């Protein structure tokens, strides 16, 4: 084995400072996660419980196999918006009857589980993950449909949700809906389009238009039960495939449906893996509070991969990018990790070759981000940094093996693209609380605007207001800094969640297991024209 050495000293002042900064960020993160866990607040949670109903996360927990993990996705969706943190929905990957499934659960304590624009984005992301990784989908539904005041933002894209359900089914990926309460208007199409539907006696209500709308549209008098109750749908319309007596029975029946799917992963589970040689707890003290201070990503790799065993590729060439082969929870991976932040021509060419090799070997790629982008300056432009950076982006764009991205530190500019940022469709993308991502750093962006404004004033022969310039720079820096933070970006679903660094190995392992439900096949050519 090629065991990575470590130079990390947990007793050093630098480690202590890094760890303290990380723990402070994690405390802030916990406070925001608590808002999602709190749903609509104590009043509405108490009202929901008073009706004898389980909460969304309790339904998920009872659905899952005992003592198995649940990888929650996008828990901070809608953070920083006018809507509740979590976007009135729980999504994630969990094991049901031994089968990894994509699970969604609407939260009826938040505006009756109504869908707002962020709910829609979160649900569409969940469907995307299910489709790419061939994960059976289980929807735990209790929703009044669209949040009507925001209909202008969700009506058109909302149709994609129904399209996704039918496309999943057409691809042979099972879809299961369990209706716990109202599933009205557009929400009625979720059980209507799913392969399997479970409804609950005296609880489930599924109709396109409720009694008031029917009265207004047709003049017909009706009631909830005759219009859309579970017994009516089980006996008369045939929409209900399974009729449950209560929530527990519904979840039991959903589990039995999964048990009868005869679902198999495309790849067998790997043998048990040896854990890293170094303590994962130490991951909390590696990234400096100031991202301008470099750190060695090998220290991260050594605490994430099996047995800390890593075979580095081209270690002496393009040293600002670490590339190499390892196993993670028994599964082979190729790793690309930024070392000193900047990507030069050598790093770009090295990355392109490494990505091609991973595709030849059908090996998933893990990208560990800490980059300020591609190098600028006359020397580097003349040396071909544009075409070499384009080579790396070309390789990432046309690679067919699954990609996993983790933002550890900076992830700026085109470097974010080259390292498989959100726009490049990684199967999963997570961020550490220490990360920042934007077009460029706040100081650089504010400085560029200042230089442009100063040059414009000079060209027009006008005096330049230095005091106003200082104020503008401070305002821009503050804005860009706030918009670069992981909670802001996670709230907009630019990642799949902000995670504790110490959980990185576990999170990546769960993702790799999910990925291997579908075939893993690399590109054989088809990379487009590499400019030499």
UniProtKB/TrEMBL annotation:
Residues 272-532 form the CoA carboxyltransferase C-terminal domain. PROSITE patterns: COA_CT_CTER (PS50989), COA_CT_NTER (PS50980). InterPro entries: AcCoA_carboxyl_beta, ClpP/crotonase-like_dom_sf, COA_CT_C, COA_CT_N, MCCB/AccD1-like. It holds the Pfam family Carboxyl_trans. Residues 22-273 form the CoA carboxyltransferase N-terminal domain. This is Acetyl-CoA carboxylase carboxyltransferase subunit. It comes from Streptomyces chryseus.
